[in-house]
Amino acid sequence: MVLRDPDTARLACLGGEPAFERPIPVGQLYFPSWDRYEQAMSGIFERGWYTNHGPLARELEQRLAAFFGVKHAVVVTNATVGLMMALKCLGLAGKVLVPGFTFVASAQAVTWAGLDVEFCDVDPVTHQVTEETLTAALDADVSAILAVNLWGGTCRPTEIAAFAREHGLKLVFDSAHGVGVSCDGVSLGGFGDAEVFSFHATKVLSATEGGCVCTNDDELAAKLRNMRSSYGSGTPAQVPLTSNGRFSEAQAAVALMSLDDFAANRGRNERIHGLYRQGLDGIAGLSLVIPADTDHSNYQYAVVDVDEDAYGLSRDTLLKALRAEQVIVRRYFHPGVHRTVPYSAEPGRWQLPVTDRLCTRLLQLPIGALVSDEDSLQVVELVGRIGANSAAVAEALGLGA
Ligand code: T4K
Hints:
Layout lengths: L23 E2 L8 H14 L7 H14 L3 E5 L2 H11 L5 E5 L4 H9 L3 E5 L10 H7 L4 E7 L8 H10 L3 E5 L7 E2 L2 E2 L6 E5 L12 E5 L2 H10 L21 H33 L4 E3 L13 E5 L1 H4 L3 H10 L2 E2 L24 H9 E4 L7 H16 L1 H8 L4
Parallel strand pairs: 1-13, 3-4, 3-5, 5-6, 6-9
Antiparallel strand pairs: 2-10, 7-8, 9-10, 11-12, 12-14
Helix pairs in contact: 1-8, 2-8, 3-4, 8-12
């Protein structure tokens, strides 16, 4: 990434040139070199087999099962479809507990599966669901929990699984952020009835679009494979509906290369995350969120908590000032899912003070393939300079300090 001279540049929101010549986005965007991609694609063209459980998709399923340490890894079009299928295959009825602080897809999948969403809050420090936040939302109509492992951290899945067992609830983990993450030495993948991972381009393990459902339950795996397409595959199993959640050979080729590169890409993320942490430590009011309860994170996101009083600017003003510099920061998640359609049709039904508060404070910084060490240092420098000029920045952006 080419930087303009940081010493002479004025902040872009104060009339200077953007610090970066090209946008640097949030999102991992780790992709193989063109040569490797071309070679993989030419193999697919030679075989003339492009989708419908081809050899690369089958190889990927085997390698993923070993990677996650599970009996079955069922690859699917994306994590959203994987969540919908897992919930549907479990034959649930009534309500499913879902955190309000998550990506909309978590709750939408529950609704698509014909179930009712019951939102719960999250822990203010870890941002994850806990036994306490689940208990506060639990009632007799709840049949399952959709727990989310956020940010490359975990919600302590062993404890959540014990809670689900104690209350006779099914348990699915939305581990869209959690590829290669472990808790107490155990990899995510085998917890609960099923765990669902995302291989979107913005994830550490990428298939461009993609995901997988992991389970140790043979019957559930057979159902998932039969629900994944209109004609089923593998062991026949009765399912209430079929769909098209198939994985193409092109997706599988990219995912296999991404799996080869995973350790290196994770290591690179760890380094950038460390640089952000070190740099932000010296800026009042800002702190980098450490992925919760994991001994091995993938550093899927670099999440900053903005304390407006101490930093001098709100999260949203900082976001605008950074975007003016071509640092394309995001505010995951905003607003809380309970405030989005269709759930917002019942205003006031869910009181989620922690979720609401986090939605105003968190900002994701660029991390992944397009971010060099130098870029991350430059981002930290910009964040410091924006804070040091808080009054002028607030006035220029018209947002109030
Ligand atoms: N559960 C959770 C907890 C999730 O976070 C997600 C998805 C899911 C379930 C569902 O997983 P999938 O069904 O997607 O497999 C992004 C991702 O699309 C989404 O996968 C992710 N989580 C969510 C948190 O973020 P957007 O709408 O913010 O992405 P987008 O397109 O704005 O991209 C982010 C940045 O990356 C932008 O600055 C542009 C840049 N970008 C993106 C793409 C796709 C590129 O430069 N090139 C690209 O190809 O949702």
